[in-house]
Amino acid sequence: MKKKQIFLFIISFIFSFNSIFSQTENTESDSLIKKDKSFNINKLRFGIDLSNPMISSSNDDNLSYEIVGDLQITNDLYLAAEYGSIDRYIEDENINFYSVGNYLKIGFDFNMFNNWVGMDNSIYVGLRYASSNFSNKVDNYSVRSGEAYFSNLVDNGYENVTHNNLNGNWVEIVTGVKVETFKNIYLGISLRLNKLLSDTKPSNFDNLFIPGF
Known about the structure:
Elements lengths: L6 E12 L24 E7 L1 H8 L6 E8 L4 E15 L3 E17 L10 E24 L6 E7 L3 E21 L2 E15 L14
Antiparallel strand pairs: 1-2, 1-9, 2-3, 3-4, 4-5, 5-6, 6-7, 6-8, 8-9
């Protein structure tokens, strides 16, 4: 797989838990919330990515999932982490294969939105470092000659070969929105720009798909 940039939309459903470490009441009479830039562990949120189960269901794949979470450490800054597992059948023009693996992303989000009193929404930018461990199993393939203007089929067949212990590492620039739809329940969407840093490739087979990338 060549190093390239990919845009991804992620839809998340998130539950929020106010931390017992610090819980303060806002007594400001202004309509805008005054931001406190001091270190203050105040909120822990967990959720699930809704796009992976929907893709799995539409493609009749095994269940794939992603768990997301963030921890508020200042009024605007959140530590963020995501863990996911993907079991997918990939159909390409010349090769079909299974890809199974998991991935972990860690980083931070910075909220740029100034909430009104009673609101807890965010428009944020962030950064992630991600790593994936996976395996690919070739199901069938075809080989074509590129010498002619219209490529001709040279060979096709079946090769049940599994390539294990593969790894990919990349960084993501993230931007998105989280909206509190009900008390402590959020719905969000994010846009991600990925850049592959490194990946291990098996012999005679490229990494056409990396889980989480």
